[in-house]
Amino acid sequence: MQPTKHVNYLLLYLPFVIALFLKSFPHSSYILAWAGSFFIFYVCYRGLIKPLPSDLPIVEQLLRPMFFLQIIFAGYMATTSIFYYIHALGYEYLTYVGNRPLMFGDVYESIAKCQRYYVLGHAAFAHGLLAGMRYASEKRYRIYTPSMSNLLLGISISCLPLGYFFFKFSSLSQFSVQLSGLSFVTGTIALAFAIREHKKINIWGGGILFLLNLLAALTSGFKEPIIICFLLLGIFLLPIFGKKLIPLFITLLIALFLVLPTFIGNFRRMVGKGVDPLTARNESINRIVNSDNLVKDLREDNWSFLTIRLSEIEMFIRFTESTPTFVPYYNTTLVKDAIKTIIPRFFWPGKPNVEQLVMTRVYNAGVVDPSSNVSAKPAFIVDCYLSYGMIGIWIGLFLYGYIAQKLSELAELWFGGYFMGTAVMFAGLFQILWRGNSFEFLFNAVFWSLVTMYLIKLIFKAKGILFKV
């Protein structure tokens, strides 16, 4: 891979510079900043700064950070605010209904300012990905297995009870999320490989694991795990069935986006009233299936979802209004607190409650009333802003992209290439990077995912699954 001149990276920041130049015109500034993320995608995927990896066809390397991670993380962060902006203009879908009471003051300037931060963050993130992208040309390790679907099923079946076991012990709970995520990914990929290998028993086993993961996702109270279930399956079935599969999965994903807001809303309301998750899940499904006004319910719930819950720009606006005007920048405090959360409670019995630690800055900014029973964790870009403002966003998002890229490359180095390295280990253990989170939760998860990946490497070598070339 040829070296890239540092000046070429300035192309990524062009949308932010133009939007900043037009900050006196909030509507123009917002539109340019929002569209700027699509320009960044274009620059990355056309290879205008650095060529894309050529060791595999694009369709067979979609889970590398440049593709899946950037689209999910940066796309979610930087492009979903368009619905909030349309809502602020007084529209509901394409119908003008007038401005809402919650829209007041210089809301358009606030939206434009936060969108400029988003496109700056996206540019820095892509910069980090590209700067870190140096895939090794030679393999140090190889995976040996008579059947890949058997190996994947074995990993999934082994990790599932282990994740549950570790969850029951607070001193080992760091490994629970990682193993559960790995079981979820390997189970989904095992189904795709079983279909490729035409193994009926493995298809049944993989199908049951996929169904179990889907049912677990339906009781999580979040839409992302459900969507990711089908996204991963589609990515691994794509090389088998080709482009003819794309229309089917696009239709399926659109259907999920239409139905999930209503389902999740019903589920959360019932759980909030004390109903157990399994009953809430079944009842929420029944309400959708048996609804007499399904179209109306979906229309109302989806607009609320698109304008408030899909995008986090409203929360970001509140943080920017309070910091640094009323609440000073936190500087290195958030990073120091995040590093402390890595220490297991077994070694530090007096370790602060991480949720309460995160919510303190939410309360300080007035985003949520302390008396309310609501969790509103800041997004990664918000914590970057709260630390050092604009420069914090650039540093934080650059490091996010660079570290994610290096973790993917390390996984490929340890596990013999893209498939077992990035598609299985990186995707299974580092799922938190797809969506992001506040510093404390992210640092903890990434550190213990790295430890888990190293332990799995040792186990694979001991079992003869992994050997040096």
Task: Give the arrangement of secondary structure elements.
Blueprint: H1 14-21, H2 26-45, H3 65-79, H4 82-88, E1 91-92, E2 95-96, H5 107-132, E3 141-143, H6 148-167, H7 174-197, H8 200-218, H9 224-241, H10 246-272, H11 277-289, H12 294-309, H13 313-322, H14 333-340, H15 354-364, H16 380-414, H17 418-429, H18 432-435, H19 439-462, E4 466-468
Antiparallel strand pairs: 1-2, 3-4
Helix pairs in contact: 1-2, 1-5, 2-3, 2-5, 3-5, 4-12, 5-13, 5-16, 6-7, 6-8, 7-8, 7-9, 7-17, 7-19, 8-9, 9-10, 10-11, 10-12, 14-19, 16-17, 16-19
In brief:
With 469 residues, the protein is mainly alpha-helical. It is 68% helix and 2% strand. The protein has helices spanning 14-21, 26-45, 65-79, 82-88, 107-132, 148-167, 174-197, 200-218, 224-241, 246-272, 277-289, 294-309, 313-322, 333-340, 354-364, 380-414, 418-429, 432-435, 439-462, and strands at 91-92, 95-96, 141-143, 466-468.
Explain this structure to me?
With about 475 residues, this protein is mainly α. The chain has one domain (about 5-469). The protein contains 19 helices and 4 strands. It has helices at about 15-20, 25-45, 65-80, 80-90, 105-130, 150-165, 175-195, 200-220, 225-240, 245-270, 275-290, 295-310, 315-320, 335-340, 355-365, 380-415, 420-430, 430-435, 440-460; strands spanning about 90, 95, 140-145, 465-469. The strands form 2 sheets. The protein has a two-stranded antiparallel sheet with strand order 1-2. A two-stranded antiparallel ribbon has the order 3-4. A hairpin with a 2-residue loop joins strand 1 and strand 2 (about 95). The radius of gyration is 23 Å and the shape is globular. The protein starts with 13 loop residues before the first helix and ends with a strand. The mean pLDDT is about 85.
